[in-house]
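Contributing new records

If you add data, match the layout below exactly. Sequence lines come first and carry their own label; structure lines follow with theirs. Keep one chain per record. Anything else will be rejected by the validation script.
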Amino acid sequence: MDQRARPEQDFSVFADSVRFPGPGRLRVTEAMTRLEAERLRVVRALEHGQPVAARVLGRGGQEINQNIVRELPSWRTLDSVKPTGSLERLAVSLPHNTYAMQAGLRMTSVWHRDALSPDVRLVLSGEDPEVYFFGYGPLEMKIVDGVEVLLEGPTVRNRTTVVVVRDPACLAAARRYWDAVRATAYPCAAEQLPVDGLTERQRRVVALMLTCSSDEQIARRLGLSVRTVRTEVAVILELLDAPTRFVAGVRVRELLSRITA
């Protein structure tokens, strides 16, 4: 079942002009400092061949992503903090996440808003408001099924690694960090493009126009016919006073620049 926000839902209450006040940031920073200390302890143990409840998931971006995709079907829950993102990565990761959730994964994803471009924030604003959140989370991590955490590992032959950690102290620190980050979070849907007259579905189409290269791709993501997508795109171009999709993109970026950073 599609759980995205209905048109009558108002998330503006979450998008305060003063984001992530001092106490929330301080709690996150304190929890992050503790988690980083535990992470370094685990990394040193791995580097020196000492016993520790952790394993290397992969070395280098391609291998790490391949191994995550391989293990993903066995995950039941995923709590994720993402400090950065790009349109190119979202074009790949968002469909994968959707397929995983359709297969039964329960996911909550908090994105570090301060480090995201307006384009990325717009794309995320079109995603499920029960899954995708903006918050204050400078350190990346994933807690899987509540029993293990994925963190940056040791550098091996100049390649970044990711480690899967079950060490109790590190996992406890990860949970404290997650709780602190989650307390700052609000639905990405709170930040929508300031264009009057757009329906919820048209806002999703606008967002997907930034990551999908064709109407066919947008149709697959939304479960619509290509004809319906093209009709919606035509309405969007008219509302934006844009003769082409390229000009629409320029208009969108102009509007995004007006949103409070």
